Amino acid sequence: MTWQLRLTSVAVRARRLFSAAALMTAVLWAGEPAPGPKPVGQKPELQPPAASDKPKTNAPAPLSPSNGWEPLFDGKTLTGWKVTDFAGKGEVQVKDGTIFLGMGYMTGITRTSPVPRMNYELSLEAMRVEGSDFFCGLTFPVGDSPCSLIVGGWGGSLVGLSSLDDLDASSNETTRFINFENRRWYRIRLRVQPDRIQAWIDEDKVVDVDTTGRKISIRWEMEESKPLGIATWSTAAALRNLRIRKL
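-> structure tokens emitted (247 positions)
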């Protein structure tokens, strides 16, 4: 019996050695090292998110500084701006290159540094985070007169100038309705010249009006935004890439 057990043990060892030699031979012929166990705790390789997981955006590429554009926002602080002194305003924060205007009765920022009053273009990107009214009430100078471009007013879709000949954005020839999506960036560009005001949202021209002989003004609610300011109405919004250039 002892002799039979020893013979069986020798046979098992022989089979193991043969298997190991066969594996090593195959590896050498393949020219690659034998695969080893993965380190414990190794993180799996990250995969790019599926298209359906990416945030919605339709914002074009940033404007080139070489075209004369100057930043109005340093991406870190409100230098050159102040929180607009609206009654019932929401909180204003700066984070990750973005200005967040919190929900309030009216919330906004007003420029404290000098700005051109004629022959200029202004560009920014704006997003309605939550709410259902205007997420960009852009008040701007037209010579000695102020005017406002309203984006997303009157329930969320109204676009127009306030005011022309005392008629606000809902009542003059610039009135337009656009279906804006929450949490989506929109590029807004404004051009002011002695006889004309023009505005674009993304690539669409939404305002093109001859201002010769017209009375240009603002609604009383926007007085605190002069000479240049951005405000929201019962809506939380985000702003980024604020720039200006002289024509």
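DSSP finds one helix and 15 strands in the chain.
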